[in-house]
Amino acid sequence: MAEDQTVPEARKEQVVPEARKEQGPFEAVNQFFDEAADLVHLKDEFYDVLKTSYREIAVQVPVRTDDGGLRVFKGYRVQHNGARGPYKGGIRYHPSADLDEVRALASLMTWKTALMDLPFGGAKGGIECDPTGMSAREIESMTRRFTLSISHVLGERRDIPAPDVNTNAQVMAWMMDAYSSRYGYTPAIVTGKPLDLGGAPGREAATGRGCVYVLEAAAKRWDVNLGEATVAIQGFGNVGSWAARELHERGIKVVAVSDVSGAVYNAKGLDITALLGWAGSYRPLHDVEGCDKITNEELLELDCDVLIPAALGEVINRGNADAIRAGIIIEAANHPTTPDADKVLSDKGVRIVADILANAGGVTGSYFEWAMNIQQFRWKETQFNTELQDAMVKAFDACASFSEKRGVSLRQAAFAIGIERVARAARLRGYV
Ligand code: NAD
């Protein structure tokens, strides 16, 4: 979402993804869970505990609109599993953020925090709304009302939200203020905050930067020369734009990027610095001059070496999996690939770095911020980035070793490592 008070032009036509036809997101995530749980011989009695949410809250969020009307949105917070620590996960504002999607995303957070060995469980929240058509005042009012409605299950040692699609540091500031107004000053109640309110230098970039650290680790392991590689990125918001910037700074050629308005393409490599300036003023990429225009669908099917989906879920599905030509997919977005598509791509030999590994830089950076807040200190960004890189490379290597040893995909490896850790913690705590 926009950092300032204007409605971003580039986000005006957001739509619910088309591909929710194969199966619901929660069922899809649990299909990945089942495959990995079998691999680690998870005891039958664990399945129900680990596959279902601990708590799901649905609240009404009434908002007085600028023209004096009243709109009532549906808001959700799903706490999936807290065996390893406080629930942790972002807040999404999007028309598709229904209970099933939020539940799926919460489950992914459980496996992601465990894979990264962070002292957190998994959660997610969302409001079914299209914030691109709302004023900043309406978004603030909605955010405050939602926060107060779920505040009894939040807490710096209980559940800690963060930004996700269409939410940002400003939204986190409103959440923190609303929570603090009821419970006292509590900066650690959310992460991804503005620096002035206890945010961590490096957190904003952490998800996109983490994707690039993982890509570098993968290229090293698989002997891929990134100097000669071409990369296409879907989504040019927080995650996509930071990934593009980091790649560009390393001299790695980004040939296509997109936002909801469409994609720009240049086979010789895009001028990412210019595009960041353009998008930074909330102008749609579709209006950029001097580049070829392609659709978001065409971007996914480009003849490139690396594809980074960094927008919404289920964009790689049964309908287009066969047409994907990239050899490596770095899943910056959450759940961008359906199980059917995953199978098609794996059979083709495409190497997929799964979401719970690829985009884990976000929650890892959030962990750093939270730890700094509760101990009242702050790292410099250089230290933040060094620690982030170590964590990402370590997690990638663990997944790659598991995958090579057991002859399974990186996704199965990532889920298996996460599931084993959560199961151990659940058993030790006496959940089962
Ligand atoms: P954002 O709101 O900042 O950006 C989303 C981008 O996707 C925008 O460029 C938007 O124009 C584009 N987009 C929206 N609808 C689209 C469509 N239908 N087709 C193509 N592009 C579309 O969100 P973000 O924080 O960058 O999150 C992007 C993805 O990364 C999400 O899946 C999110 O769950 C995941 N993620 C984010 C974080 C984080 O720290 N922000 C952490 C982990 C994972």
Structural summary, described in words:
This protein has 432 residues and is an alpha/beta fold. Among the domains are: 55-197, Rossmann fold (3-Layer(aba) Sandwich); 206-353, NAD(P)-binding Rossmann-like Domain (Rossmann fold, 3-Layer(aba) Sandwich). The chain is built from 14 helices and 12 strands. It has a 7-stranded mixed β-sheet, sandwiched between helices. Strands 1-2-4-3-5 form a 5-stranded mixed β-sheet. Strand 11, helix 10 (339-348) and strand 12 (351-353) form a beta-alpha-beta unit. The model is unreliable at 1-16 (pLDDT under 50). The site of nicotinamide-adenine-dinucleotide has 28 residues, from helix 7 and strand 7.
Structural class: alpha/beta
Helix content: 40-55%
Distance between the termini: 41 Å
CATH homologous superfamily heading of the domain at 206-353: NAD(P)-binding Rossmann-like Domain
User: What is the CATH T-level topology of the domain at 206-353?
Assistant: Rossmann fold
pLDDT under 50 segments (min length 5)?
A: 1-16
CATH-derived architecture of the domain at 206-353: 3-Layer(aba) Sandwich
Summarize the structure.
With 432 residues, the chain is of the alpha/beta class. The protein has 14 helices and 12 strands.
Key terms for this structure?
Rossmann fold, alpha/beta, 14 helices, 5-stranded mixed β-sheet, disordered N terminus, 7-stranded mixed β-sheet, single chain, binds nicotinamide-adenine-dinucleotide, 12 strands, 432 residues
